[in-house]
What does this fold into?
Amino acid sequence: MKLSKQDILKALETISVPGEGGNMVETGAVKNVMTFGDEVIVDITITNPSLQAKKRTEVDILKTIHEQVYEKAKITVNVKVDAPATPKVNVIKGNAIPGIQNIIAVASGKGGVGKSTVTANLAVSLQKMGFKVGILDADIYGPSIPIMFDVEKERPLAVDINGKSKMRPIESYGVKVLSIGFFTQPDQAVVWRGPMAAKALNQMIFDAHWGEIDFLLIDLPPGTGDIHLSIMQSLPITGAVIVSTPQVVALADAKKGVAMFQQESINVPVLGIIENMAYFTPNELPNYKYYIFGKDGAKNLADDLGVKFLGAIPLVQSIRESGDVGSPAALQIDTPLSEAFKSITQNVVQEVVNRNEALPPTEAIKITTMAGCAAPKK
Ligand SMILES: Nc1ncnc2c1ncn2[C@@H]1O[C@H](COP(=O)(O)OP(=O)(O)OP(=O)(O)O)[C@@H](O)[C@H]1O
It folds into this structure.
């Protein structure tokens, strides 16, 4: 079989480089195509330096040529990365916070997809790995972190630090917690505007005595409103993690969430997407997986958007129960659930390391300890 260069180019015109828009031939990304009998060599240059973008580009090219031109074609794809020459600006906004190394915003477009559950379990997994961890529960519509850490009746006390009165976070399972829920009545509907919420959160960060923290997780309210804009613009967020179920309506909102973080005025790196309630396995049928909300939706969305897929969490009764009794499932020892959360947490840490390496050395966001965590892959 002799392949024609024209056929290959025509096939490549049907795909684009992740995140670059336009078809890869028209944008000039495809630099050269050579054919020898049933062999094809494609040289392509992309601007996105992430491993996923490279891998995705390669896979798309292989798949497209196999599907549209010749299924047995022997294809070599040479992907070159030509990142923009301008040095990356440090996207960290606001003042660096002494003692707090990384701030990770946990967000979801849609409500009720398990953002707080994921935040709580990420925190516990990070703590088990040896990191110093804090959670700032910023979900003004329904702060649930105090319940998940069994501290809903607690109230933070003031401590004197160098002559200044500071709020001491409540500690549970080795995780320091401050929640907007500690300052509002449980049945009080909180109608706050963005700047007010951002101010309250600023106080909970800057006027609190967090001590040394490797990861401060912020449990954001659901949605993409002005509250998010205010928070993102005023706090030095290292990166954002998006939680979604595989359901179409949740994915549409998750996509808006990713777009919000990536827009120019916000520019917070998206560390990746976590798929929650990915499938249901009944106790009595351990080999069955029911894809109640659809299959691989969040994974496919991550691929489409060129962001990392951080992992999937099943829909399991004990996750809900452990959240309700204030003992996050990740506290379990060597169970499939605690292992699943551990693996996702390692991916998050890896992405933070990657992200910090990609920024100038001046930023105040270096990870200082990798204790208990698998060494990052270079
Ligand atoms: N993987 C899971 N398996 C079973 N139940 C889950 C799972 N994830 C979350 N839940 C349950 O779903 C409900 C909603 O979860 P959660 O409060 O974490 O969502 P959320 O996205 O933070 O909600 P909100 O929009 O109110 O902030 C809770 O009762 C929680 O226990």
